[in-house]
Amino acid sequence: ELKVEQNPLFLSMQEGKNYTIYCNYSTTSDRLYWYRQDPGKSLESLFVLLSNGAVKQEGRLMASLDTKARLSTLHITAAVHDLSATYFCAVVTGTASKLTFGTGTRLQVTL
Amino acid sequence: DTGVSQDPRHKITKRGQNVTFRCDPISEHNRLYWYRQTLGQGPEFLTYFQNEAQLEKSRLLSDRFSAERPKGSFSTLEIQRTEQGDSAMYLCASSFPRAFHRTGELFFGEGSRLTVL
Fold it and tell me: How far is A16 from chain B (nearest CA, A)?
């Protein structure tokens, strides 16, 4: 059974600091997603990583994928309060292209 | 067409009642997925359709749950004899397989939040 684990589960960080969220998964996949979710809201797509070594950046967020290590990272640079949310990684498996989500990382950026 | 829409957005019901949620995918998308998300957890796959055919169901989908997509367009998810454990956000997503394999785009709706009292 595929397992997708994120760490940390909760992250409190000050504005202006850098940090990395890690996503490990237990089976082969060449496609990984990062989503943001605000409280009570649906999922907002941040990044789709389609191959080994893929790196994508948007604003203060940068995501990378290492399929050999089965690891993806979401790096936050100079955090701002607006980044406070829960971040999920998700891995595609099977012919149905269904997503298996990680446990989520709740990010709180303090002033 | 602005995206995947779901209705109702919120539903409060008493235990034992039946509820139905509707999802309208993006018009050219022939794949449609249902996920369930409980508080503090990531979404979990429930089922998916390719056109009108329901091709996979999770073991999470008990006999009280049924999903349909009669004409390959909108889909409904019905929960019979609701239980408090059914309280969750029910998310619908859609994709177009060729685009999905090229770009990985999967579009989620705003979700339908169910509260069972």
Answer: 27
